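sry for the spam today, last one i promise. struct tokens for design, 618 residues
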């Protein structure tokens, strides 16, 4: 499930393939899908000629993701600071996994003690070991390592055979049964090519696609050893076991962050990384007939990026592109690196880090990138009315913070929406533009598009005129001010971010009225924003109301000088029982950036206990 949630290829690649084949390769180039020189990195094609529209795959996958009762994993922050840069002289550790906010919360916290183990961790239901945890020797955390783990292939099929390496080979078929409560079982046939199962035969897709599409997915090609990895992390007492655990992560790709009592720190980009032919553009639908686009295999683990006990005294991961390692730059759906840059620049500035300083950093909502975007926009804008002048001045005065009383974020995100909408939607169509905004691609594309005055996207193809960047940006600014005035009034100083940005934790039952009033937690006016360290992400839209799509599913901070009193916070509470006082008793603490102790000292636990449950085996 995590592998599926992390693999955004199904949501992105069919749409991108349509853009490439129907609009042209320059449109793909101007979206800056790959690594660009301005991106911050973690230290260390064969295009189908036809115009088949595979967009329905993107649309249906997006709809499925929206309806799933369990939240999707989106990203994360983590950093580990060595004793050389800490006040205590011991390692400091931080991790906040970014997951779809939900109720109950994703992680289940537990403190376990046996005669041989003392462990405090965050668990997922059904997995006997914690994925993020610490014992008396070391701590480990996770962020998504979004290397491209999936390829889609356009297949040529005749009767019960598929053209593969220019020969007709037999398709393989098997029946699957899904039992449904209160209804007859659903029985369907899975047809498999040498690349993998054909997904276009599913009812939803078969209505819209006239060309078979198969999926090559890492998780279907490997023997799953993730449980061995997290078991090793939970029980080991040696630094060398860190790499052994990292080797056992296959899919989804995970950045494993590590720190220990002996002073070691490290990071591994852990995944089975695909070795593709040089000509393959893995973000487009590939040709399944010739075999020339097939993966060549997997890279040996020696090609996986890593950073162990660096001279800098810290390691950071924020879902951005790792630098090339052993000469290989691995493609993926990475974030551009704004969070990585903010974290690493902050760590560089001081050598006396402690928990209080870490609290401030993990809640930072300042972007150094967005004010530069505002300046680029302002250079193209002519403010005519008093309200427009006030809005432009407020935006230009912005230093990038997203606290609730700020006005500039409200203006900024509205402008970015209309700039993208006016430049992209005419070519993409509305359905694809809405899909585009639901992906991380748009975040990567904003800055390169803004500074590219010759981009093919600027002209509106539905008008006889040739629109320029100045035309589009100025029109977007004017429309943004008009809409914000209608939404929030003429007084620009009252356009506070906390009037339009909210945190909400939606229960599966609470998706329907009136159950939302009972089961949901929130919404709460909140700070934070897109691609800041306190990333409270949302889907950009024209309505101007931004309700959280994802956010930190926990925040963990620890100093190995006092490992028994590390601190954390849960987005809502530890109980899934709506009648329990712990159902939502951490919700406002979470919004306000507060923490509580991850208690491991027996006397503290007994002092604050509510009761004791004893399980007796008979």
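last one done:
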């Amino acid at each position: 499930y995590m592998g599926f949630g992390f693999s955004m290829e199904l949501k992105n690649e069919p749409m991108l393939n349509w853009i490439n084949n129907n609009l042209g390769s320059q449109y793909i180039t101007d979206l800056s899908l790959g690594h660009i020189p301005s991106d911050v990195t973690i230290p260390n094609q064969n295009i189908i000629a036809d115009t088949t529209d595979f967009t329905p795959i993107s649309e249906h996958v997006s709809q499925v993701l929206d309806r799933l009762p369990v939240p999707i994993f989106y990203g994360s922050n983590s950093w580990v600071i060595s004793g050389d840069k800490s006040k205590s002289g011991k390692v400091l550790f931080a991790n906040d996994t970014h997951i779809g906010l939900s109720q109950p919360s994703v992680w289940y916290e537990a403190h376990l003690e046996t005669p041989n183990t003392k462990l405090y961790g965050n668990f997922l239901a059904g997995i006997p070991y914690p994925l993020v945890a610490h014992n008396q020797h070391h701590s480990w955390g996770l962020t998504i390592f979004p290397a491209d783990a999936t390829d889609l292939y356009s297949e040529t099929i005749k009767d019960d055979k598929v053209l593969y390496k220019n020969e007709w080979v037999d398709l393989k078929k098997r029946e699957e049964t899904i039992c449904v409560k209160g209804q007859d079982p659903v029985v369907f046939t899975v047809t498999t090519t040498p690349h993998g199962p054909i997904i276009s035969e599913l009812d939803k897709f078969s209505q819209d696609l006239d060309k078979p599409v198969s999926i090559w997915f890492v998780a279907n090609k490997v023997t799953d050893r993730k449980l061995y990895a997290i078991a090793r992390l939970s029980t080991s007492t040696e630094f060398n076991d860190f790499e052994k655990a990292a080797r056992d992560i296959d899919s989804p790709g995970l950045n494993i962050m590590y720190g220990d009592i002996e002073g070691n720190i490290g990071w591994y980009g852990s995944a089975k990384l695909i070795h593709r032919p040089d000509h393959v553009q893995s973000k487009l639908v590939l040709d399944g007939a010739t075999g020339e686009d097939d993966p060549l295999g997997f890279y040996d683990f020696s090609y996986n990026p890593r950073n162990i006990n660096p001279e800098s005294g810290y390691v950071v991961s924020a879902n951005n592109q790792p630098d090339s390692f052993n000469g290989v730059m691995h493609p993926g759906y990475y974030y551009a690196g704004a969070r990585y840059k903010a974290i690493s620049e902050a760590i560089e500035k001081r050598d006396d880090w402690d928990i209080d300083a870490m609290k401030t950093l993990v809640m930072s909502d300042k972007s150094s990138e967005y004010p530069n975007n505002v300046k680029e926009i302002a250079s193209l804008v002519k403010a005519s009315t008093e309200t427009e002048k006030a809005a432009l001045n407020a935006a230009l005065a912005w230093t990038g913070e997203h606290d609730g009383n700020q006005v500039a974020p409200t203006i900024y995100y509205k402008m970015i929406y209309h700039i993208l909408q006016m430049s992209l939607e005419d070519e993409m169509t509305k359905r694809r533009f809405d899909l585009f905004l639901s992906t991380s691609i748009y975040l990567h594309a904003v800055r390169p598009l803004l500074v590219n005055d010759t981009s093919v996207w600027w002209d509106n193809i539905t008008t006889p005129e040739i629109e320029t960047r100045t035309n589009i940006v100025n029109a977007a600014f004017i429309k943004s001010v008009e809409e914000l005035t209608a939404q929030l009034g003429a007084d620009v100083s009252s356009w506070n971010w906390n009037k339009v940005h909210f945190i909400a934790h939606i229960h599966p039952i609470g998706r329907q009225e009136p159950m939302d009033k009972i089961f949901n937690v929130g919404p709460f006016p909140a700070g934070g924003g897109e691609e800041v360290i306190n990333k409270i992400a949302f889907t950009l839209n024209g309505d101007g109301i931004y309700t959280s799509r994802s956010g930190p599913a926990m925040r963990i901070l620890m100093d190995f000088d006092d490992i028994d009193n590390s601190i954390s916070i849960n987005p809502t509470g530890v109980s899934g029982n709506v009648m329990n006082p712990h159902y939502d008793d951490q919700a406002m603490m979470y919004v306000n950036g507060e923490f509580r102790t991850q208690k491991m000292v027996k006397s503290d636990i007994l002092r604050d206990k509510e009761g004791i449950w004893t399980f007796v085996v008979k």
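The two ends are 36 Å apart (CA to CA). ok im logging off now
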